[in-house]
Amino acid sequence: MKWFDYAAPGSLSEALGLLERNPGALLLAGGTDLLVQMRARRKQADLLIDVKKAPELNELSLDAGGLTLGASVPCYRVYGNRDVARAFPALAEVAGLIGGTQIQGRASIGGNLCNAAPSADAVPLLIALSARCRIAGPGGEREMAVEDFCVAPGRNALGAGEILVSLRIPAGGAGFGAHYLRFIPRNEMDIAVVGSGVSVRLEGGVVSAARVALAAVAPTPLFAREAGDSLVGKAPDAAAIEEAARLASAAARPISDMRGPAEYRRHLCGVLTRRALTAAVAAAQGGK
Amino acid sequence: MQSKVHVQTTINGEPREFLCEPRQSLLECLRDTLGLTGTKEGCNDGNCGACTVTMDGRVVTSCLVLGVEAAGAEVTTVEGIARGSALHPLQRAFLENAALQCGICTPGFLVAANALLEAEPDPDEQRIRLWLANNLCRCTGYDKIIRAVQQAAREMRGANA
Ligand SMILES: Cc1cc2nc3c(=O)[nH]c(=O)nc-3n(C[C@H](O)[C@H](O)[C@H](O)COP(=O)(O)OP(=O)(O)OC[C@H]3O[C@@H](n4cnc5c(N)ncnc54)[C@H](O)[C@@H]3O)c2cc1C
Ligand code: FES
Ligand code: FES
Q: Quick one: DSSP state of residue B80?
């Protein structure tokens, strides 16, 4: 790695100031993507701004309306927080799926999102959970739906000088269920061949809302809106779920690479979406 | 502009200080600057776990931590695991179960397993395997490592009973 300087600002405003004054700076959270990429010379910086010490990015708090998840909160804090794990079991599960114990000691959900890998495991679930991004920059603050955040492989929608502060995830509550499933050759520590994150809301035995998003089948995590919408107004039975899974598979635009051929990925989209929806429906019915 | 950073930290319970370049990993600082060569380098990209240490109680791969990030933190390396000149129960169990061959993965396994047993004295096999998924071993085939951790867990529970 080339020489860089290091700063660990104690607040968001200090971090924003540093970033504005140093156009060649990059932000460091857990470093599990960034340091690997810098070592491989895929990224360079003259300053790393360690944002982990800013309280705004470290917030993990539940209220009646939902969860505020600071951008640099490491995964172990997400699944280690009993209230969060109870209110958002699918989120806790995905936090326990990224890398292994050591990676989870450092890696953040915000970093997973900002890195904008098509295969990022947390992103489809965040989309399914209707998460919104709180972004701060030189011009003030703005919000964005998480499905609009990743724009190309490794590229996100942040402009110069902007920082992802936190994610806001609305409360699920009764009748709501979510689930993420990925396919990898090992049980852990591998990159998804395909992932599917889903959520359903049931009212009076009928689906009132559903969302499906996919990993590793497009240049960015893919929001398969039609797949979720197809369930609305139906009873969540096998036929309805099968149709949604078919639409997810049709929405996929996979490539062939060393992890799997495109056709295989398309097939997996359907299988994983069907299984994830079945699990989410069971959770929404209070079965889990 | 390019000046080294003075880092004050605690390693294995003792206050330590060192100078490092911001780009140096904690792994490099431990091995090359502080002479704590028990911590090993395997992949240098977070996959193998040979460089595992604990930082403020969490196991981390020290190749993906910057040395400067250790400022004010508490770090434990494999050198901090033995109890004086006596082997830690995990270390003894690794020897007795032949849970190592070349040994390069062993310090990482010891640090990671120790963190598990401190938090959860009675993990089942599945839990141990999952916890140690970030540690790779190319020699033993893992079964002996798992058996060693189970034996140490039994002994440690007995000693604390
Ligand atoms: C061994 C290993 C296994 C892995 N396994 C998985 C896996 O199973 N699934 C998976 O999805 N990923 C996996 N990863 C990738 C990585 O761990 C995750 O993407 C992780 O969530 C990244 O978070 P971080 O906090 O380490 O981010 P960092 O590496 O610190 O940052 C990631 C990127 O986001 C930028 N950034 C960080 N914070 C902000 C912010 N607040 N605002 C704007 N930009 C920001 C950084 O500049 C950088 O470009 C693995 C990595 C390793 C090394
Ligand atoms: S050397 Fe750090 S994980 Fe392999
Ligand atoms: S003993 Fe050789 S890698 Fe584990």
A: G
